[in-house]
Protein backbone atom coordinates (compact mmCIF):
# COMPACT_ATOMS: atom_id res chain seq x y z
CA UNK A 1 0.00 0.00 0.00
CA UNK A 2 2.82 2.39 0.88
CA UNK A 3 4.48 1.95 -2.52
CA UNK A 4 1.19 2.51 -4.34
CA UNK A 5 0.59 5.73 -2.40
CA UNK A 6 4.15 6.88 -3.10
CA UNK A 7 3.62 6.18 -6.80
CA UNK A 8 0.31 8.08 -6.60
CA UNK A 9 2.05 11.14 -5.18
CA UNK A 10 4.79 10.84 -7.81
CA UNK A 11 2.16 10.89 -10.57
CA UNK A 12 0.62 14.04 -9.09
CA UNK A 13 3.79 15.92 -8.15
CA UNK A 14 5.69 16.10 -11.43
CA UNK A 15 3.13 18.23 -13.29
CA UNK A 16 1.32 19.61 -10.22
CA UNK A 17 1.27 23.22 -11.48
CA UNK A 18 -0.35 22.54 -14.83
CA UNK A 19 -2.60 19.94 -13.24
CA UNK A 20 -4.00 22.36 -10.66
CA UNK A 21 -4.60 25.11 -13.22
CA UNK A 22 -6.28 22.68 -15.61
CA UNK A 23 -8.52 21.18 -12.92
CA UNK A 24 -9.54 24.58 -11.54
CA UNK A 25 -10.36 26.06 -14.94
CA UNK A 26 -12.00 22.93 -16.35
CA UNK A 27 -14.08 22.26 -13.25
CA UNK A 28 -15.40 25.81 -13.02
CA UNK A 29 -16.18 25.97 -16.74
CA UNK A 30 -17.97 22.61 -16.91
CA UNK A 31 -19.86 23.29 -13.67
CA UNK A 32 -21.41 26.51 -14.97
CA UNK A 33 -22.04 24.99 -18.39
CA UNK A 34 -23.84 22.08 -16.70
CA UNK A 35 -25.97 24.43 -14.62
CA UNK A 36 -26.93 26.43 -17.71
CA UNK A 37 -27.76 23.27 -19.68
CA UNK A 38 -29.99 21.89 -16.92
CA UNK A 39 -31.77 25.22 -16.56
CA UNK A 40 -32.31 25.54 -20.31
CA UNK A 41 -33.51 21.92 -20.58
CA UNK A 42 -36.07 22.50 -17.82
CA UNK A 43 -37.29 25.72 -19.44
CA UNK A 44 -37.71 24.07 -22.87
CA UNK A 45 -39.51 21.06 -21.40
CA UNK A 46 -41.84 23.25 -19.32
CA UNK A 47 -42.66 25.39 -22.35
CA UNK A 48 -43.56 22.42 -24.54
CA UNK A 49 -45.67 20.90 -21.76
CA UNK A 50 -47.64 24.11 -21.31
CA UNK A 51 -46.32 24.87 -17.81
CA UNK A 52 -44.92 28.20 -16.73
CA UNK A 53 -43.53 26.87 -13.45
CA UNK A 54 -42.52 23.57 -11.87
CA UNK A 55 -43.84 22.54 -8.46
CA UNK A 56 -44.36 19.35 -6.51
CA UNK A 57 -47.87 19.13 -7.98
CA UNK A 58 -46.74 18.79 -11.61
CA UNK A 59 -43.28 17.32 -10.98
CA UNK A 60 -44.33 13.73 -11.74
CA UNK A 61 -45.91 14.64 -15.08
CA UNK A 62 -42.88 16.79 -15.90
CA UNK A 63 -40.51 13.83 -15.43
CA UNK A 64 -42.68 11.49 -17.52
CA UNK A 65 -42.84 13.86 -20.48
CA UNK A 66 -40.97 12.71 -23.64
CA UNK A 67 -39.48 16.21 -23.85
CA UNK A 68 -37.96 15.87 -20.37
CA UNK A 69 -36.65 12.38 -21.07
CA UNK A 70 -35.02 13.34 -24.39
CA UNK A 71 -33.56 16.62 -23.12
CA UNK A 72 -32.15 15.15 -19.93
CA UNK A 73 -30.64 12.21 -21.79
CA UNK A 74 -28.98 14.79 -24.02
CA UNK A 75 -27.63 16.66 -21.00
CA UNK A 76 -26.43 13.36 -19.50
CA UNK A 77 -24.49 12.48 -22.67
CA UNK A 78 -22.81 15.90 -22.71
CA UNK A 79 -21.91 15.62 -19.02
CA UNK A 80 -20.51 12.14 -19.66
CA UNK A 81 -18.40 13.63 -22.45
CA UNK A 82 -17.10 16.27 -20.01
CA UNK A 83 -16.23 13.50 -17.56
CA UNK A 84 -14.40 11.48 -20.23
CA UNK A 85 -12.36 14.49 -21.32
CA UNK A 86 -11.32 15.15 -17.71
CA UNK A 87 -10.54 11.48 -17.01
CA UNK A 88 -8.59 11.14 -20.25
CA UNK A 89 -6.64 14.33 -19.54
CA UNK A 90 -5.70 13.15 -16.07
CA UNK A 91 -4.71 9.61 -17.08
CA UNK A 92 -2.62 10.76 -20.04
CA UNK A 93 -1.14 13.45 -17.81
CA UNK A 94 -0.07 10.83 -15.28
CA UNK A 95 1.46 8.77 -18.06
CA UNK A 96 3.48 11.75 -19.24
CA UNK A 97 4.54 12.46 -15.64
CA UNK A 98 5.81 8.89 -15.35
CA UNK A 99 7.88 9.51 -18.50
CA UNK A 100 9.18 12.84 -17.05
CA UNK A 101 7.45 14.95 -19.69
CA UNK A 102 6.50 18.43 -18.54
CA UNK A 103 2.91 19.53 -19.27
CA UNK A 104 1.09 22.83 -19.00
CA UNK A 105 -2.63 23.26 -18.33
CA UNK A 106 -3.35 23.56 -22.05
CA UNK A 107 -1.56 20.26 -22.69
CA UNK A 108 -3.86 18.48 -20.26
CA UNK A 109 -6.88 19.82 -22.10
CA UNK A 110 -5.48 18.86 -25.52
CA UNK A 111 -4.61 15.38 -24.30
CA UNK A 112 -8.09 14.94 -22.89
CA UNK A 113 -9.88 16.03 -26.05
CA UNK A 114 -7.56 14.07 -28.33
CA UNK A 115 -7.86 10.97 -26.16
CA UNK A 116 -11.66 11.05 -26.17
CA UNK A 117 -11.81 11.73 -29.93
CA UNK A 118 -9.53 8.74 -30.53
CA UNK A 119 -11.68 6.70 -28.16
CA UNK A 120 -14.89 7.59 -30.01
CA UNK A 121 -13.34 7.09 -33.44
CA UNK A 122 -12.51 3.53 -32.49
CA UNK A 123 -16.24 2.93 -32.08
CA UNK A 124 -15.89 1.58 -28.54
CA UNK A 125 -19.37 2.63 -27.55
CA UNK A 126 -19.73 -0.27 -25.10
CA UNK A 127 -16.94 1.39 -23.17
CA UNK A 128 -19.32 4.31 -22.54
CA UNK A 129 -21.30 2.12 -20.16
CA UNK A 130 -18.23 1.36 -18.07
CA UNK A 131 -17.15 4.99 -18.17
CA UNK A 132 -20.60 6.08 -16.97
CA UNK A 133 -20.55 3.49 -14.19
CA UNK A 134 -17.23 4.91 -12.94
CA UNK A 135 -18.77 8.34 -12.31
CA UNK A 136 -20.46 7.68 -8.91
CA UNK A 137 -17.24 6.40 -7.32
CA UNK A 138 -14.90 9.01 -8.78
CA UNK A 139 -17.30 11.93 -8.25
CA UNK A 140 -19.28 10.88 -5.15
CA UNK A 141 -18.62 14.04 -3.11
CA UNK A 142 -19.27 16.36 -6.04
CA UNK A 143 -22.55 14.59 -6.88
CA UNK A 144 -23.82 14.67 -3.28
CA UNK A 145 -22.84 18.31 -2.79
CA UNK A 146 -24.35 19.51 -6.05
CA UNK A 147 -27.56 17.53 -5.58
CA UNK A 148 -27.99 19.33 -2.26
CA UNK A 149 -27.17 22.68 -3.91
CA UNK A 150 -29.44 22.38 -6.97
CA UNK A 151 -33.01 22.57 -5.68
CA UNK A 152 -34.50 20.57 -8.55
CA UNK A 153 -32.11 17.66 -7.99
CA UNK A 154 -32.55 17.79 -4.22
CA UNK A 155 -36.32 17.63 -4.58
CA UNK A 156 -36.05 14.67 -6.98
CA UNK A 157 -33.74 12.85 -4.57
CA UNK A 158 -36.15 13.37 -1.67
CA UNK A 159 -39.09 12.16 -3.75
CA UNK A 160 -37.21 8.99 -4.65
CA UNK A 161 -36.25 8.43 -1.02
CA UNK A 162 -39.84 8.81 0.17
CA UNK A 163 -41.25 6.46 -2.45
CA UNK A 164 -38.73 3.63 -2.03
CA UNK A 165 -39.86 1.42 0.85
CA UNK A 166 -38.17 0.04 2.83
CA UNK A 167 -35.32 2.57 2.73
CA UNK A 168 -32.85 -0.26 3.31
CA UNK A 169 -33.38 -1.33 -0.32
CA UNK A 170 -32.25 2.09 -1.49
CA UNK A 171 -29.12 1.95 0.71
CA UNK A 172 -28.38 -1.56 -0.58
CA UNK A 173 -28.75 -0.37 -4.18
CA UNK A 174 -26.37 2.55 -3.56
CA UNK A 175 -23.82 0.24 -1.91
CA UNK A 176 -23.91 -2.19 -4.85
CA UNK A 177 -23.69 0.73 -7.29
CA UNK A 178 -20.58 2.08 -5.54
CA UNK A 179 -18.91 -1.34 -5.63
CA UNK A 180 -19.62 -1.70 -9.35
CA UNK A 181 -18.50 1.89 -9.87
CA UNK A 182 -15.21 1.25 -8.05
CA UNK A 183 -14.58 -1.74 -10.30
CA UNK A 184 -15.36 0.37 -13.36
CA UNK A 185 -12.80 2.97 -12.28
CA UNK A 186 -10.03 0.37 -12.71
CA UNK A 187 -11.27 -0.35 -16.22
CA UNK A 188 -10.86 3.29 -17.31
CA UNK A 189 -7.10 3.11 -18.04
CA UNK A 190 -7.70 0.21 -20.43
CA UNK A 191 -10.57 2.19 -21.92
CA UNK A 192 -8.70 5.44 -22.51
CA UNK A 193 -5.00 4.55 -22.66
CA UNK A 194 -5.02 1.32 -24.65
CA UNK A 195 -6.67 -0.16 -27.71
CA UNK A 196 -8.25 -3.01 -25.80
CA UNK A 197 -11.56 -4.48 -26.84
CA UNK A 198 -14.33 -4.00 -24.30
CA UNK A 199 -14.49 -7.56 -23.00
CA UNK A 200 -10.70 -7.92 -22.74
CA UNK A 201 -10.35 -4.56 -21.01
CA UNK A 202 -13.05 -5.43 -18.50
CA UNK A 203 -11.37 -8.75 -17.69
CA UNK A 204 -7.97 -7.12 -17.21
CA UNK A 205 -9.38 -4.31 -15.08
CA UNK A 206 -11.39 -6.64 -12.83
CA UNK A 207 -8.45 -9.05 -12.64
CA UNK A 208 -6.17 -6.22 -11.58
CA UNK A 209 -8.57 -5.29 -8.79
CA UNK A 210 -9.35 -8.85 -7.68
CA UNK A 211 -5.72 -9.90 -7.14
CA UNK A 212 -4.89 -7.00 -4.82
CA UNK A 213 -8.27 -5.87 -3.53
CA UNK A 214 -7.23 -5.76 0.15
CA UNK A 215 -4.19 -3.61 -0.55
CA UNK A 216 -6.19 -1.39 -2.90
CA UNK A 217 -9.05 -1.02 -0.40
CA UNK A 218 -6.66 0.02 2.39
CA UNK A 219 -4.96 2.49 0.06
CA UNK A 220 -8.24 4.05 -1.03
CA UNK A 221 -9.46 4.39 2.55
CA UNK A 222 -6.23 6.11 3.55
CA UNK A 223 -6.34 8.35 0.48
CA UNK A 224 -9.94 9.37 1.18
CA UNK A 225 -9.12 10.12 4.81
CA UNK A 226 -6.42 12.49 3.56
CA UNK A 227 -8.81 14.10 1.08
CA UNK A 228 -11.47 14.48 3.79
CA UNK A 229 -8.96 16.05 6.19
CA UNK A 230 -7.68 18.47 3.54
CA UNK A 231 -11.23 19.37 2.51
CA UNK A 232 -12.35 19.94 6.11
CA UNK A 233 -9.29 22.06 6.89
CA UNK A 234 -9.75 24.13 3.72
CA UNK A 235 -13.48 24.59 4.42
CA UNK A 236 -12.80 25.69 7.99
CA UNK A 237 -10.05 28.07 6.89
CA UNK A 238 -12.19 29.68 4.19
CA UNK A 239 -15.21 29.89 6.50
CA UNK A 240 -13.22 31.55 9.28
CA UNK A 241 -11.76 33.99 6.75
CA UNK A 242 -15.19 34.78 5.34
CA UNK A 243 -16.62 35.32 8.82
CA UNK A 244 -13.77 37.65 9.71
CA UNK A 245 -14.29 39.63 6.50
CA UNK A 246 -18.01 40.01 7.29
CA UNK A 247 -17.12 41.26 10.77
CA UNK A 248 -14.81 43.86 9.27
CA UNK A 249 -16.84 45.08 6.32
CA UNK A 250 -20.47 44.54 7.35
CA UNK A 251 -22.42 46.14 10.17
CA UNK A 252 -25.71 45.59 11.97
CA UNK A 253 -28.35 43.05 11.10
CA UNK A 254 -26.96 42.34 7.65
CA UNK A 255 -24.05 40.35 9.05
CA UNK A 256 -26.00 37.17 9.66
CA UNK A 257 -27.63 37.15 6.24
CA UNK A 258 -24.29 37.92 4.60
CA UNK A 259 -22.69 34.97 6.38
CA UNK A 260 -25.53 32.67 5.29
CA UNK A 261 -25.31 33.88 1.67
CA UNK A 262 -21.54 33.45 1.51
CA UNK A 263 -21.85 30.05 3.20
CA UNK A 264 -23.97 28.86 0.25
CA UNK A 265 -21.30 29.97 -2.20
CA UNK A 266 -18.55 28.37 -0.16
CA UNK A 267 -20.46 25.08 -0.07
CA UNK A 268 -20.99 25.28 -3.84
CA UNK A 269 -17.28 25.97 -4.37
CA UNK A 270 -16.38 23.11 -2.02
CA UNK A 271 -18.37 20.75 -4.19
CA UNK A 272 -16.26 21.81 -7.18
CA UNK A 273 -12.95 21.95 -5.26
CA UNK A 274 -13.16 18.76 -3.19
CA UNK A 275 -14.86 16.98 -6.09
CA UNK A 276 -11.86 17.83 -8.25
CA UNK A 277 -9.44 16.68 -5.54
CA UNK A 278 -11.35 13.40 -5.19
CA UNK A 279 -11.41 12.79 -8.95
CA UNK A 280 -7.72 13.63 -9.38
CA UNK A 281 -6.54 11.70 -6.34
CA UNK A 282 -8.67 8.65 -7.16
CA UNK A 283 -7.51 8.46 -10.78
CA UNK A 284 -3.89 8.98 -9.70
CA UNK A 285 -4.29 6.02 -7.36
CA UNK A 286 -5.96 3.94 -10.09
CA UNK A 287 -3.15 4.82 -12.50
CA UNK A 288 -0.53 3.93 -9.90
CA UNK A 289 -2.06 0.45 -9.53
CA UNK A 290 -2.48 0.12 -13.29
CA UNK A 291 1.09 1.16 -14.14
CA UNK A 292 2.70 -1.02 -11.46
CA UNK A 293 0.84 -4.27 -11.96
CA UNK A 294 -0.67 -4.53 -15.43
CA UNK A 295 1.13 -6.22 -18.33
CA UNK A 296 2.62 -3.38 -20.33
CA UNK A 297 2.35 -3.08 -24.06
CA UNK A 298 5.46 -3.24 -26.21
CA UNK A 299 5.11 0.38 -27.26
CA UNK A 300 3.44 3.47 -25.92
CA UNK A 301 1.50 6.00 -27.93
CA UNK A 302 3.76 9.10 -28.28
CA UNK A 303 0.99 11.63 -27.73
CA UNK A 304 3.52 14.12 -26.43
CA UNK A 305 4.36 14.78 -30.09
CA UNK A 306 1.03 16.53 -30.52
CA UNK A 307 2.32 19.59 -28.68
CA UNK A 308 4.70 20.22 -31.61
CA UNK A 309 1.88 20.22 -34.16
CA UNK A 310 0.96 23.89 -33.89
CA UNK A 311 2.75 25.97 -36.50
CA UNK A 312 0.99 29.23 -35.69
CA UNK A 313 2.77 29.66 -32.34
CA UNK A 314 5.95 28.37 -30.81
CA UNK A 315 5.72 25.71 -28.09
CA UNK A 316 6.91 27.98 -25.29
CA UNK A 317 4.77 30.94 -26.32
CA UNK A 318 1.66 28.81 -26.73
CA UNK A 319 2.07 27.22 -23.34
CA UNK A 320 2.71 30.44 -21.54
CA UNK A 321 -0.21 32.11 -23.26
CA UNK A 322 -2.47 29.18 -22.42
CA UNK A 323 -1.34 29.21 -18.79
CA UNK A 324 -1.94 32.95 -18.46
CA UNK A 325 -5.32 32.70 -20.16
CA UNK A 326 -6.32 29.83 -17.87
CA UNK A 327 -5.31 31.82 -14.80
CA UNK A 328 -7.21 34.82 -16.14
CA UNK A 329 -10.27 32.64 -16.73
CA UNK A 330 -10.15 31.24 -13.20
CA UNK A 331 -9.77 34.77 -11.83
CA UNK A 332 -12.72 36.02 -13.85
CA UNK A 333 -14.89 33.11 -12.71
CA UNK A 334 -13.92 33.78 -9.11
CA UNK A 335 -14.71 37.45 -9.60
CA UNK A 336 -18.05 36.51 -11.12
CA UNK A 337 -18.91 34.43 -8.06
CA UNK A 338 -17.87 37.25 -5.74
CA UNK A 339 -19.84 39.82 -7.74
CA UNK A 340 -22.89 37.56 -7.70
CA UNK A 341 -22.63 37.18 -3.93
CA UNK A 342 -22.16 40.93 -3.41
CA UNK A 343 -25.15 41.67 -5.66
CA UNK A 344 -27.33 39.35 -3.57
CA UNK A 345 -25.99 40.99 -0.43
CA UNK A 346 -26.82 44.44 -1.79
CA UNK A 347 -30.36 43.38 -2.57
CA UNK A 348 -30.89 42.41 1.04
CA UNK A 349 -30.38 45.96 2.24
CA UNK A 350 -33.39 47.13 0.23
CA UNK A 351 -35.71 44.29 1.28
CA UNK A 352 -37.60 45.02 4.46
CA UNK A 353 -40.99 43.74 5.51
CA UNK A 354 -43.26 43.76 8.52
CA UNK A 355 -43.26 39.98 8.54
CA UNK A 356 -46.27 38.12 9.88
CA UNK A 357 -45.70 35.10 12.20
CA UNK A 358 -47.86 32.02 11.69
CA UNK A 359 -47.93 29.01 14.00
CA UNK A 360 -47.49 25.79 12.03
CA UNK A 361 -50.26 23.18 12.43
CA UNK A 362 -51.95 25.42 14.95
CA UNK A 363 -48.85 25.48 17.16
CA UNK A 364 -47.42 21.97 17.24
CA UNK A 365 -44.34 22.64 19.36
CA UNK A 366 -45.96 22.97 22.77
CA UNK A 367 -49.31 21.22 22.33
CA UNK A 368 -50.92 18.54 20.13
CA UNK A 369 -51.05 19.74 16.53
CA UNK A 370 -54.32 21.02 15.04
CA UNK A 371 -56.13 21.20 18.39
CA UNK A 372 -57.76 23.97 20.40
CA UNK A 373 -54.96 23.64 22.98
CA UNK A 374 -52.36 24.32 20.29
CA UNK A 375 -54.28 27.34 19.01
CA UNK A 376 -54.65 28.69 22.54
CA UNK A 377 -50.90 28.35 23.13
CA UNK A 378 -50.10 30.07 19.82
CA UNK A 379 -52.32 33.01 20.77
CA UNK A 380 -50.64 33.29 24.17
CA UNK A 381 -47.20 33.13 22.53
CA UNK A 382 -48.00 36.13 20.35
CA UNK A 383 -48.43 34.51 16.95
CA UNK A 384 -50.27 36.66 14.42
CA UNK A 385 -52.05 33.73 12.85
CA UNK A 386 -52.18 29.95 12.82
CA UNK A 387 -51.93 27.48 9.96
CA UNK A 388 -54.36 24.56 10.21
CA UNK A 389 -55.01 21.48 8.05
CA UNK A 390 -58.58 20.65 7.05
CA UNK A 391 -59.98 17.34 5.82
CA UNK A 392 -63.45 15.83 5.76
CA UNK A 393 -64.87 12.73 7.36
CA UNK A 394 -66.88 9.96 5.72
CA UNK A 395 -70.09 11.91 6.39
CA UNK A 396 -68.69 15.23 5.11
CA UNK A 397 -67.80 17.01 8.39
CA UNK A 398 -64.75 19.27 8.17
CA UNK A 399 -62.17 18.50 10.86
CA UNK A 400 -58.55 19.43 11.56
CA UNK A 401 -56.06 16.73 10.60
CA UNK A 402 -52.75 16.78 8.76
CA UNK A 403 -52.27 13.15 7.73
CA UNK A 404 -54.67 11.07 5.69
CA UNK A 405 -54.43 8.37 8.36
CA UNK A 406 -55.53 8.80 11.97
CA UNK A 407 -52.87 6.40 13.26
CA UNK A 408 -50.07 8.84 14.18
CA UNK A 409 -52.32 11.16 16.17
CA UNK A 410 -55.00 8.85 17.61
CA UNK A 411 -53.56 5.34 17.04
CA UNK A 412 -56.66 4.39 15.01
CA UNK A 413 -55.40 2.66 11.87
CA UNK A 414 -57.96 4.11 9.47
CA UNK A 415 -58.02 6.91 6.90
CA UNK A 416 -60.06 10.02 7.59
CA UNK A 417 -62.53 9.29 4.76
CA UNK A 418 -63.29 5.89 6.27
CA UNK A 419 -64.71 7.14 9.60
CA UNK A 420 -67.68 9.30 10.58
CA UNK A 421 -67.60 12.33 12.79
CA UNK A 422 -69.31 10.38 15.60
CA UNK A 423 -66.33 8.02 15.58
CA UNK A 424 -63.89 10.95 15.46
CA UNK A 425 -65.46 12.48 18.59
CA UNK A 426 -64.51 9.40 20.61
CA UNK A 427 -60.82 9.51 19.70
CA UNK A 428 -58.00 10.87 21.88
CA UNK A 429 -55.78 13.28 19.90
CA UNK A 430 -53.65 14.40 22.86
CA UNK A 431 -52.09 11.37 24.54
CA UNK A 432 -49.61 10.80 21.71
CA UNK A 433 -48.17 14.25 22.51
CA UNK A 434 -48.20 14.05 26.32
CA UNK A 435 -50.20 12.68 29.25
CA UNK A 436 -51.32 16.16 30.25
CA UNK A 437 -53.28 16.39 26.99
CA UNK A 438 -55.11 13.09 27.40
CA UNK A 439 -58.67 13.41 26.11
CA UNK A 440 -57.90 16.24 23.67
CA UNK A 441 -60.36 16.06 20.78
CA UNK A 442 -60.00 16.60 17.04
CA UNK A 443 -61.93 19.84 16.50
CA UNK A 444 -64.20 20.74 13.62
CA UNK A 445 -63.43 23.72 11.41
CA UNK A 446 -66.49 25.53 12.77
CA UNK A 447 -65.31 25.07 16.37
CA UNK A 448 -61.92 26.47 15.42
CA UNK A 449 -63.37 29.54 13.70
CA UNK A 450 -65.45 30.34 16.78
CA UNK A 451 -62.46 29.84 19.09
CA UNK A 452 -60.09 32.03 17.01
CA UNK A 453 -62.51 34.90 16.47
CA UNK A 454 -60.84 38.04 17.83
CA UNK A 455 -57.69 36.10 18.73
CA UNK A 456 -55.98 34.64 15.69
CA UNK A 457 -56.27 34.90 11.94
CA UNK A 458 -56.21 31.55 10.20
CA UNK A 459 -54.34 30.01 7.29
CA UNK A 460 -56.70 27.17 6.31
CA UNK A 461 -54.92 24.54 4.24
CA UNK A 462 -57.26 22.25 2.32
CA UNK A 463 -55.71 18.81 2.01
CA UNK A 464 -56.21 16.92 -1.23
CA UNK A 465 -56.37 13.14 -0.82
CA UNK A 466 -58.28 12.10 -3.93
CA UNK A 467 -61.43 11.34 -1.91
CA UNK A 468 -62.62 14.89 -1.18
CA UNK A 469 -63.39 16.59 -4.49
CA UNK A 470 -66.29 18.53 -2.97
CA UNK A 471 -64.36 19.83 0.04
CA UNK A 472 -63.76 23.32 -1.37
CA UNK A 473 -67.43 24.27 -1.42
CA UNK A 474 -67.90 22.99 2.13
CA UNK A 475 -64.96 25.06 3.40
CA UNK A 476 -66.31 28.19 1.70
CA UNK A 477 -69.74 27.54 3.20
CA UNK A 478 -68.38 27.24 6.76
CA UNK A 479 -66.25 30.39 6.35
CA UNK A 480 -69.18 32.42 5.06
CA UNK A 481 -71.63 31.12 7.67
CA UNK A 482 -69.21 32.21 10.39
CA UNK A 483 -68.37 35.54 8.66
CA UNK A 484 -64.64 34.76 8.75
CA UNK A 485 -63.74 35.92 5.23
CA UNK A 486 -61.68 38.90 6.45
CA UNK A 487 -59.77 36.88 9.01
CA UNK A 488 -58.54 33.91 7.02
CA UNK A 489 -56.75 32.80 3.91
CA UNK A 490 -57.22 29.44 2.22
CA UNK A 491 -54.24 27.53 0.86
CA UNK A 492 -53.68 24.25 -0.92
CA UNK A 493 -51.14 22.27 -2.90
CA UNK A 494 -53.91 21.70 -5.45
CA UNK A 495 -54.07 24.66 -7.84
CA UNK A 496 -57.50 23.47 -9.02
CA UNK A 497 -58.82 24.00 -5.49
CA UNK A 498 -57.66 27.63 -5.64
CA UNK A 499 -59.37 28.12 -8.99
CA UNK A 500 -62.62 26.77 -7.51
CA UNK A 501 -62.35 29.21 -4.61
CA UNK A 502 -61.81 32.18 -6.90
CA UNK A 503 -64.82 31.19 -9.00
CA UNK A 504 -67.14 30.82 -6.00
CA UNK A 505 -65.71 33.21 -3.40
CA UNK A 506 -63.30 35.72 -4.96
CA UNK A 507 -63.30 37.74 -1.73
CA UNK A 508 -61.33 35.00 0.07
CA UNK A 509 -57.57 35.31 -0.29
CA UNK A 510 -55.85 32.20 -1.61
CA UNK A 511 -52.31 30.85 -1.36
CA UNK A 512 -50.58 28.25 -3.51
CA UNK A 513 -48.44 25.87 -1.43
CA UNK A 514 -45.27 24.91 -3.31
CA UNK A 515 -42.85 22.28 -2.08
CA UNK A 516 -40.47 23.71 -4.66
CA UNK A 517 -40.59 26.46 -7.27
CA UNK A 518 -38.92 26.66 -10.65
CA UNK A 519 -39.87 28.90 -13.54
CA UNK A 520 -42.17 31.92 -13.78
CA UNK A 521 -45.15 32.36 -11.42
CA UNK A 522 -46.72 35.16 -13.43
CA UNK A 523 -49.52 32.95 -14.78
CA UNK A 524 -50.71 31.69 -11.36
CA UNK A 525 -53.66 34.09 -11.33
CA UNK A 526 -55.72 32.08 -8.83
CA UNK A 527 -53.10 32.56 -6.10
CA UNK A 528 -52.94 35.78 -4.10
CA UNK A 529 -49.70 34.64 -2.47
CA UNK A 530 -47.23 31.78 -2.60
CA UNK A 531 -46.43 29.56 0.36
CA UNK A 532 -43.02 28.04 -0.39
CA UNK A 533 -40.65 25.82 1.54
CA UNK A 534 -38.02 28.19 2.88
CA UNK A 535 -34.95 26.54 1.30
CA UNK A 536 -36.41 27.05 -2.18
CA UNK A 537 -37.01 30.77 -1.68
CA UNK A 538 -34.54 33.11 -3.39
CA UNK A 539 -34.24 36.87 -3.62
CA UNK A 540 -35.24 36.58 -7.26
CA UNK A 541 -38.44 34.74 -6.37
CA UNK A 542 -39.36 37.33 -3.70
CA UNK A 543 -38.77 40.20 -6.12
CA UNK A 544 -40.87 38.56 -8.85
CA UNK A 545 -43.77 37.86 -6.47
CA UNK A 546 -43.72 41.38 -5.05
CA UNK A 547 -43.55 42.83 -8.56
CA UNK A 548 -46.77 40.92 -9.29
CA UNK A 549 -48.34 42.39 -6.14
CA UNK A 550 -48.30 39.04 -4.35
CA UNK A 551 -46.87 37.88 -1.04
CA UNK A 552 -44.37 35.16 -0.20
CA UNK A 553 -44.93 32.94 2.83
CA UNK A 554 -42.03 30.74 3.99
CA UNK A 555 -42.52 27.36 5.65
CA UNK A 556 -41.47 25.73 7.99
CA UNK A 557 -38.71 27.92 9.48
CA UNK A 558 -37.37 26.92 12.91
CA UNK A 559 -33.61 27.69 12.87
CA UNK A 560 -32.48 31.18 13.95
CA UNK A 561 -30.18 31.64 10.98
CA UNK A 562 -32.90 30.72 8.48
CA UNK A 563 -35.38 32.98 10.28
CA UNK A 564 -32.95 35.90 9.98
CA UNK A 565 -32.36 35.05 6.34
CA UNK A 566 -36.10 35.05 5.56
CA UNK A 567 -36.62 38.32 7.40
CA UNK A 568 -33.82 40.03 5.52
CA UNK A 569 -34.99 38.56 2.23
CA UNK A 570 -38.33 40.29 2.72
CA UNK A 571 -40.80 37.41 2.96
CA UNK A 572 -44.23 38.49 4.14
CA UNK A 573 -45.02 35.59 6.45
CA UNK A 574 -42.96 33.03 8.34
CA UNK A 575 -44.72 29.76 9.19
CA UNK A 576 -42.96 28.18 12.14
CA UNK A 577 -43.29 25.64 14.92
CA UNK A 578 -41.78 28.21 17.31
CA UNK A 579 -43.44 31.65 17.08
CA UNK A 580 -41.59 32.78 20.22
CA UNK A 581 -38.21 32.23 18.57
CA UNK A 582 -39.23 34.13 15.44
CA UNK A 583 -40.46 37.04 17.56
CA UNK A 584 -37.18 37.06 19.49
CA UNK A 585 -35.17 37.16 16.27
CA UNK A 586 -37.34 40.02 15.03
CA UNK A 587 -37.02 42.04 18.21
CA UNK A 588 -33.72 41.19 19.87
CA UNK A 589 -31.42 41.07 16.87
CA UNK A 590 -32.62 44.34 15.39
CA UNK A 591 -29.91 46.93 15.94
CA UNK A 592 -27.76 44.71 18.17
CA UNK A 593 -24.18 43.60 17.51
CA UNK A 594 -23.33 40.04 16.58
CA UNK A 595 -19.97 38.67 17.72
CA UNK A 596 -17.45 36.65 15.71
CA UNK A 597 -18.22 33.40 17.53
CA UNK A 598 -21.95 33.66 16.88
CA UNK A 599 -21.38 34.49 13.22
CA UNK A 600 -19.02 31.54 12.89
CA UNK A 601 -21.69 29.26 14.34
CA UNK A 602 -24.12 30.51 11.69
CA UNK A 603 -21.48 29.98 9.00
CA UNK A 604 -20.84 26.40 10.13
CA UNK A 605 -24.55 25.67 10.61
CA UNK A 606 -24.13 24.91 14.31
From TrEMBL:
InterPro entries assigned: GlyceroP-diester-Pdiesterase_M, GP_PDE_dom, PLC-like_Pdiesterase_TIM-brl
Annotated transmembrane regions: 12-35, 70-94, 125-144, 169-193, 220-249, 269-290, 321-342
Pfam family, one: GDPD
Domain of life according to the entry: Bacteria
GO-annotated biological processes: lipid metabolic process
Keyword rRNA-binding listed: no
GO MF term set: phosphoric diester hydrolase activity
Keywords: Membrane, Transmembrane, Transmembrane helix
Domain GP-PDE residue range list: 355-586
Name of the protein described by the UniProt record: Glycerophosphodiester phosphodiesterase
Organism encoding this protein: Candidatus Blautia merdigallinarum
